[in-house]
Amino acid sequence: MTNDKQQQEEELLILKSILGETITDLSNENDQFEIDIEFQLSRPFHLRLIDNSNQLSTVIQHLPPLILTIHFHDQYPSSIHSPTFVLSSCYLSRTYLENMCRNLDEIWEQNLSQPIIFQWIECLKEEFSSVNELCLTNSEINNENDDPRAMSSYEPDRATPIYQQLIEYNQEIENEKFLHEYHECPICMSNDISGRDMIRLHKCHHTFCRACLHDYAQMHINTGSVEWLLCPDSQCQLALLPSEIKIIINNNELYDKYERLLLQKTLEQMLDIVWCPRCQQAVLTGNENDNLALCDQCRFAFCKKCKKTYHSQTLCAIEQELIELKEKRRKALLKWRGLKLTEDDEKNLLREFLAVARIENSTRLCPNSMCQVPIEKNEGCDHMYCVRCRTNFNWSEAKDQTTEAKALFEQYGNDLDKLNEEIRNERDDETDINNLKVLELPLVTKLLMSRTKKCPNMNCGKHHVKSGASNYIICQHCKRGFCFSCGNSVAKPNSHFGQGCKRHSDT
C-alpha cells in the first residue's frame, strides 16, 4: 500500500507540473482531484443545431472544457481496478459521455497496473480531432445504459440556448487570445501593437489600431459624412456599429454629434420627411397630393415644396418653374429636331463645334473691348501682348472662355462618334420628371442651340458655330458676312454694329 501511495503522489506531482492551473485538488490527502480538459478541435470545426423549425451552423475554434474528476483508491495502480472517475459536461449528452467512459475503460485494460491518468487526458483531448462537427438536437435521446460516471446537464429542450452559449464562449476565448497577442495595423503598418490597443470590428473581424480608427471616425464626424463610416479596409463595405463608434471615439460630446448627424441623414433619405424652415425640426408629411406640412414643434404651417407659408389657393413657385422648364425643354428639343440636317451636315457641324471647343479650351480673350481676339499662351511669364491691337495685359487677368464649351471638350475631346451618340440620346429623350435639375437642357443641346446660327443667304443656308466673343460671322460657304445676334446679313460691319447689335458679346 505504501508503494501505491507513493506512486499516486508522484503521478499527481507530474500531472500538476504538466497541467498547471487546470488541475484542482479536492482532498487534503492528494487522492481526489479535478481536471479541466480542453479539446483539440479539427479545423474547421462546425457547431450545428437541428430543431423542429430550422437548422443552424457556425464555425468555432473552442469548446468549454470537459471536467474529469478522479479518486485514487488505496490499491491503485497495483490493483486490476482503475481509479474511480466521473466525466461532467453541460453540452455533451449522457450517451456521448458514456461512450467516452467506455474508451477510458479500454485504455485501462490495455495498461493494467500502470499510472493511467495522463493517457486518459490525451485520449479525451483528441475526442474531436478526428471529427469536424458537434451536433445539438432537440430530439429525445434513448439512454439504454445508465452509467453513473457520465454526468450531463444537457437536455434536448435546451439545445437552442446551449448553442448560443457555446458561440458566446468561443467568442470570449477568441477575444481573450486577441488581447494577449501582438498585431499589425493595416493603416499605419505598425506590427508590434498589443491586442489591448487594437479593435476588431464585429461584422467583418478586420482589425485596426485604436489611434487610426479614432482619427478615421473623427474625420467623418467633423465633416458630416457619417454615412461613410465603413470598415477602412478597401475591399470591405460593411458599416461600423454605433457601439463600436462609441468605443472608438471615446468622447461623449463627439458621439452625441455623430448620433445627431446620423439621425439627420436617415431622415433626409425618407421621402415623407421635410424640415421645418422656422425651427429646423423634422416634419412628417401626409397626403402626397397635398403640399401642406405642419410642424409639431412650432406649429408652423408651410408648403413642403417651396418651404414658404402654406398657400392652398395659389400655384407653388417651384411648380410654376417646373412647368416653364418643361415647356422650354420641349421647344428646344423640337427646334433641334426641326433643323433637319443631313447626316454629312450634322457631322460637319459637330466637327466644327469640337474644333471651337478645343480653341476655347486653350485660349483667352484680349481684354481690349474693341478687339477681344482669342489668344493662346504656350510658355513664358504672365505678361502678354496682343499683336492685333497692341495691348499689353496679364494672362491671369484675361477673360476665360465659356466654361460649358470647355467642359464639352474635356468630356468628349476629339471623339466625334461619342458626341454624335450623345446628341441622338438627347434628341430622343422624352423625360418628364418633376425635378428641376433633370429638366434643365442637356449640355450638348444647350450649347448647339446657343452657339449655332443659320446663314441668312437664301442660296446657302449653312449652319455656323460662333467662336469667341465676335458677333460678326463670315460664312465659309458663300463668303458673306452676317450678324450672329440678329441673324441678318451684314455688308458693312462698322455701320451695323454699335447701333442695334454689339460687335462683341458673350454667348
From TrEMBL:
GO molecular function: ubiquitin protein ligase activity; zinc ion binding
PROSITE patterns: RWD, TRIAD, ZF_RING_1, ZF_RING_2
Database matches in InterPro entries: E3_UB_ligase_RBR, IBR_dom, RWD_dom, TRIAD_supradom, UBQ-conjugating_enzyme/RWD, Znf_RING, Znf_RING/FYVE/PHD, Znf_RING_CS
Keywords annotated in UniProt: Coiled coil, Metal-binding, Repeat, Transferase, Ubl conjugation pathway, Zinc, Zinc-finger
PANTHER family, alphabetized: RBR FAMILY RING FINGER AND IBR DOMAIN-CONTAINING
Domain RING-type as annotated: residue spans: 181-416, 185-232
Domain RWD: 10-131
Gene3D superfamilies linked to this entry: 1.20.120.1750, 2.20.25.20, Ubiquitin Conjugating Enzyme, Zinc/RING finger domain, C3HC4 (zinc finger)
GO biological process, one term: protein ubiquitination
Statement: the UniProt record of this protein carries the keyword Transit peptide: no
Keyword Signal among record annotations: no
Listed name of the protein: RBR-type E3 ubiquitin transferase
Coiled coil: 409-436
Catalysed reaction equations from the record: [E2 ubiquitin-conjugating enzyme]-S-ubiquitinyl-L-cysteine + [acceptor protein]-L-lysine = [E2 ubiquitin-conjugating enzyme]-L-cysteine + [acceptor protein]-N(6)-ubiquitinyl-L-lysine
EC number(s) recorded for this UniProt protein: 2.3.2.31
